[in-house]
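Section 3.1: Structural characterization of target chains.
Under the original work plan, the team committed to producing a structural model for every single-chain target entering the pipeline before any wet-lab resources were allocated. The record below documents one such target. The sequence was received from the expression subgroup and is listed exactly as submitted; it comprises 213 residues.
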Amino acid sequence: MPAPIKHNPKLTRLSWIGRPKDIAPAFFFTDDKRANNALDIAQALPPEVGIVFRSLEPEELRCTKTKQMAELAESQRRCMFVSQRPELAHQLGATGVHLPEREAYRAKQIRRLFPSLRISTACHSFSVLSSLCRDSIDLIFLSPLFSTKSHPREAGLGVLKFAHWRNVALRRSSRKPLIYALGGINADNIHRLSATGADGYGAIGMFAEAGLE
């Protein structure tokens, strides 16, 4: 099991002011390839870090792992979003459901069927961001902020473009969803988040690797 991840003020510098109490300021995104010991990593996370649980495992194994993570999250009173499965998220008492960008169209139906669930989605373009800001979304993960290990040759948005996209999209919308940064965030560059205006952030490697140091 990874050693407990020590509290770092830089990880939670983003203010809780204006944020719903059931949505964490930071999220660990599980990943079958880069963080296959997700349950161990989650046990070591600081209390202010939530979980977006994703898995491409076969259905039965995926459900088993999701339930195990949900039980841990409940025992730790930790915010948890379940990827793509609103029925399962509702059944397990998770905070919400997370949708990939290609499935963001499902948000309105999910809101109607499961009004208690928070809804988050991934986003990779300004046009989609503008649309999502007018939709039934609580939390948008805009990415990639920086170049990532998964796609090292692809340039990230960068701080200035992220801030511009966020500001323009919110200014044009009457709804004000939370917009989080995702992609390539680590202990060396996280201080740059303050210039993006992001309401929070998500990460894989930063949390997966922190407990191994």
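The longest strand covers residues 118-123.
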